[in-house]
């Protein structure tokens, strides 16, 4: 039984399952080259069908939507026209009038949501009609339920556990706690609504600091360690008492104000505060609140194996705090746990409800791949043979290792592209991690990123205990760059360019040979030459663009940066001096 699941809106994504096995997951941004693209994932759907030899879309028996509410994703002029009216309503709602007549504004919101829902459903029908899928039965599933199922079912599971989901909001919910038994049956214990959202608070702070919400929250996290200890004054004065855990139900969050409007609260109360103190304060708030939330659930249920999902858990410094909790026996962080993970959860939820046996994800290389023949054809038709030096290597990964050992920067394009936000070696820019020259070259000449942001390393599993403090793989594995550790003295030396300079932490991909044999071979070769058991690995893209997927995007990045070496398939492409 072939099932198609869709995330519509922010980071729109498609996923296909056949008889309990997920065949592929692909975000629309990988095809239209627009970061976090919210366009209907038509290109992603068609690409997945082609990849899996599904010749007719009629072979799909069910379409699952990972939400019960569809927002219009191309509002255009409608959005512009409503801006002034929305501002007026907001001012009224936050006045004494709003306090005395809250039901009036609640009614207005319901009318507006119904209007938007009608537009969203009509858009869905029109887009499905374009690809001939309008006759396929559609089912809609709750947002946070999909987050929970993605986290639990995507990995090996056979014991009772707690599942925590947390994000800005989805289907009016911002967090949930569920209990799952050894048979995979979930029981919802608690939820918090969108008005009590730690995710909205973090995003609003991101916006207040002049960055993009739903995209640059990681920059706020990266900035936080540079603040001095006196940031706690800012925390106490502005953040501490805004949101807490509900005294009546310690598994729910309770805010003193509607967190959707937290940006306005910051304008009124945080103007003039140091930017680094604000970043550190919201990070401190998030870490304290979430770890206490998890502790409460463990105490109440007696269960200490946990799973997490939802965008708040993309915060690797938070995840470090969680894995170090004495109450936690084992934790699994859903990799790339933003909305791009929802179709995965939707597929597992549908399979569970219909008694279809499922298998966890083997790895995250779930996207498109290109053969040497495909790549050679593209190079010839594009005329790049005339512009670049291009040479075929039987063992291209050995050549990459040699270049890295000589302090060259190399972009690697190999096999199937990664699903999600993290580069895991197949679409990666690689460098020698022991020299800060690597950091400055990649950061300033290729990626053009903010100076305070760190890169990450890929580390061979045999070196993880040498480079990572408190690395306990039986408690928390680290194959997906979704958590962080303090670097040991050896790690700080060997991986100097790939650690956070503010607090000496790193966000590793601990690599096993089974997951990616060719990438493992490359780093092993590099290690034999240099004695270093890891490399600097950052995503293969220009700043503001998504992770590269196709040969066209790879060459676009090569041409529009100071990158000099591209290993694509078995071909080494080099700029002429």
Describe this structure in words.
By secondary structure, the protein is an alpha/beta fold. The protein has three domains: 1-154 and 342-361, Nucleotidyltransferase, domain 5 (2-Layer Sandwich), CATH 3.30.420.40; 155-333, ATPase, nucleotide binding domain (Nucleotidyltransferase, domain 5), CATH 3.30.420.40; 372-575, Carbamoyltransferase, C-terminal domain (DHBP synthase), CATH 3.90.870.20. Helices cover 40% and strands 19% of the residues. It contains 21 helices and 22 strands. It has an eight-stranded mixed beta sheet, sandwiched between helices. It has a five-stranded mixed beta sheet with strand order 3-2-1-4-5, with helices on both faces. Strand 11, helix 12 and strand 12 form a beta-alpha-beta unit. The termini are far apart. Mean pLDDT is 93; it is low at 75-82.
Quick description:
The chain has 577 residues and is an alpha/beta fold. It is built from 21 helices and 22 strands.
Features:
Nucleotidyltransferase, domain 5; DHBP synthase; 5-stranded mixed β-sheet; alpha/beta; 8-stranded mixed β-sheet; 577 residues; 3 domains; 21 helices; globular
Got a strand count?
A: 22
In the CATH hierarchy, what is the class of the largest domain?
A: Alpha Beta
Radius of gyration: 24 Å
Query: How many strands, which pairing sense, and closed or not: the largest β-sheet?
Result: 8 strands, mixed
Class computed from helices, strands and strand pairing: alpha/beta
Number of domains: 3
- Approximate shape: globular
Instruction: Calculate the mean pLDDT score and round it.
Output: 93
Helix content: 25-40%
Strand order of the largest sheet: 13-22-21-14-15-20-16-19
This entry's quaternary arrangement is single chain
The fraction of residues assigned to DSSP E strands is 15-25%
Compute the number of helices: 21
| Low-confidence parts | 75-82
CATH architecture classification of the largest domain = Alpha-Beta Complex
Report the end-to-end length measured between terminal Cα atoms.
54 Å
State the CATH superfamily name of the largest domain: Carbamoyltransferase, C-terminal domain
Quote the CATH topology of the largest domain: DHBP synthase
